[in-house]
Amino acid sequence: MTPLPSRLAPCLATALTLALAAAPAHAQDIPARRTATVDDAYLSIAGLRQAYARGELTPLDMTLSFLDRINAIDRAGPTLRSVIETNPDAAVAAHAATQAYRNGTATSLTGIPILLKDNIETGDRMRTTAGSLLFPLPARQDATVTAKLREAGAIILGKANLSEWANFRSMMSMHGWSARGGTTLNPFALYATPFGSSSGSGAAVAAGLATAALGTETQGSIIGPAMAMGLVGMKPTIGLVSRTGIVPVSHMQDSAGPMTRSVADAAAVLKTIAGSDPTDPLTVEADRHLSDYTLALAADAVRGMRIGVVRRHAFNDNRWGSAMDRAVEILESKGAIVVDNVELPGTEVAVADQLSLVLTEFKHDIASYLARRTEQPLRTLEQVIAFNEAEADRELIHFGQELFEEALLAPGIDDPEYVERRLRARRVAGPEGIDATLATHKLDALIGPFSLNAVAALAGYPILTVPTHFEGDLPKGVMLYGTKWSEAKLLTIGHAIEQGANAFRRPTFVATPPPES
């Protein structure tokens, strides 16, 4: 594990001394500094920037406070195990951000502490492991999204725990468990599932251990944990955000995306990480579709928008009905037009093909990824499988690696049958599925059950989840689906729901379930 904050004391003290020495000559004109509180840990990005600009807090104050909270809550106390590693250079970055505010050079995310899922590379002293014990050394350079966050001034606070290999080692894998980090707990109900591979990112943000986090999703891995822990989560359109430097599952379905406590924070993070990247060919169109997503949050922007509600899809799943009902009530009160009980054209054939398609893509993508991690001793999928077998008492203690083994037998991405099935899946899920439904009813977006995320994943289309209410100890959320490049519309709708629901709560770490009635 990364040294805890107490072991960073010498460098932190030095940084704090330098920060105080750099105080402006007319410090009496600035409001008095305060000790960072629990309330500060839950400030939005805009709230933190205002506190920094007023001189009430500094990025160094907040970084040290978050590190203390990780020590007290994640490593001790409820022991969430949501943070797999803290950044030993976080205080240095925080000092630089503090200086930027004093010098008037702060930018959009200067001083905002953000966690990254531990399959997103950082070219620093932290490791990038996808939760596996396989990777002993740090990556050589930042992932593109990491570099964009640093350029915007964000402080990379650490790495978040995850379902090992992003839940793609076994069909029996455990949500939130990795050999490196243990099992992530849901901070609202320690007995409940954190639901998805970006569980550490979600748990940490919900528990006030960072202002925001990045997760990654192939199918359900951002929106699932966000929904389970009362957060806003967005999986962007495939090709809007670069995947370079992220441990892959499927280049046709993978994306990084924000996990935050508000739609405004999600929009701010998305604005920073989106854009074309010459090292990721699928992002070639991204710059043409960029938007200042923070401008999509006008109070009355949802008025007149048409939103369809898909009640039934794939199987009879009633878990999300109450959240859909709450969202519909709010949207109609704000002037949106809701078309209920919309039927999506049949997508069963596409969904049935999904696992075999992803196995082929994983075989190709993980080989390319491991080959470029030249600092690591093991660089093929065969070697990874052998490593797990040799470390079975640590790596295979809960479940196996049959998906890795099946991937070895999958055809290549140039196999004609694979190419035909992938094209069919995208067509059936996208133009003939989601797009046809939107066009038939003249809709801006869809509300639908969790199972609909499989269709959106195949199409490469965006998904947004927003919390709506609580049932017992646990938050409930609604899922919004749109066509390609429709992030701004989804954020507009999500913001309207959020303002009406006001559903985020701070977790209380309930340890045991209520008695059955």
From TrEMBL:
Gene3D superfamilies, alphabetized: Amidase signature (AS) domain (3.90.1300.10)
Pfam families assigned: Amidase (PF01425)
Name the keywords, alphabetized.
Answer: Hydrolase, Signal
Q: Does Signal appear among the keywords?
A: yes
- Positions in coiled-coil regions: none
Entry keyword annotation includes Aminoacyl-tRNA synthetase = no
GO molecular function annotations of the record: amidase activity
Enzyme Commission numbers on file: 3.5.1.4
Q: What is this protein called?
A: Amidase
